[in-house]
Amino acid sequence: MVPPLAVLHLDTDLVATDKPPGLLVHPSALDAHEERTALHSLQAQLGERLFPLHRLDKATSGVLLFARSREAARHWGPAFETGAVSKRYLALVRGWPPAAGEVDYPLARDPELPSAGQVRVPAVTRYQRLACFDWPFQVDGAHPSSRYALVQVSPLTGRRHQIRRHFKHIAHPLVGDSTHGKGAHNRAVALWLGVQRLWLHAASLELPGGLRIEAACGPEWAALSA
Q1: Does any domain span residue 226?
Q2: Catalytic residue positions?
Q3: How far apart are CA 66 and CA 51, in angstroms?
Q4: Domains: count for the chain
Q5: What pTM value is reported for the model?
Q6: CA dist 142 to 94, 96, 137, Å?
Q7: In angstroms, rounded to a whole number, what is the distance separating the alpha carbons of residues 176 and 7?
Q8: Tell me: the pLDDT tens digits for 9-42?
Q9: Helix, strand, or coil here: 18?
Q10: Which of 18, 36, 85, 176 is most solvent-facing, going by the fewest CB within 10 Å?
Q11: Which domain holds residue 13?
């Protein structure tokens, strides 16, 4: 039996859940074979229709927010569209990026299509390095160990795959990212930590007015505690 989704917040207008990795937010043509989604599961749990206010990639875990009515969706939707919602993620990346930085790099609108010829839209991501790791296994043949870092990430815009694409752009791809990352490192870290996943977690979001919702990391993140 599939366990119910954890409810992080519930009020008259909004409901937030802690989405596990591997679960779609809503039905998608890209995963037409998937029958279970966060939207359908939470609607069944609450016995009401819900309206997604934003998205997380299927492989990403963490805070996911829904409106409980069309009116609430119309009220809160623009806050996500204009970047007025503050989001904080945790990610494990390849290498040791600078202690803090900002990636201001326009992205093609649709990451599923070739970038050439697409209009590029503004995209800005800030990050802070929380911890560095030098693990005793060899991946590229040139170094006896491999370096990774735990980073806190704040996307200031909301483009698809923005965090994953921006960290690829600065040559520190996310571990476990099968699209934008490095397969050899993904496999090596999965073997070292005993977990195969995209190491990206939506840790919190804060709405205008001060409502802050947080989702604790899963137990697999304990090895990365800063």
Answers
A1: no
A2: 57
A3: 5
A4: 1
A5: 0.93
A6: 15, 17, 11
A7: 26
A8: 999 999 999 999 999 998 765 555 667 899 999 9
A9: strand
A10: 36
A11: 6-221
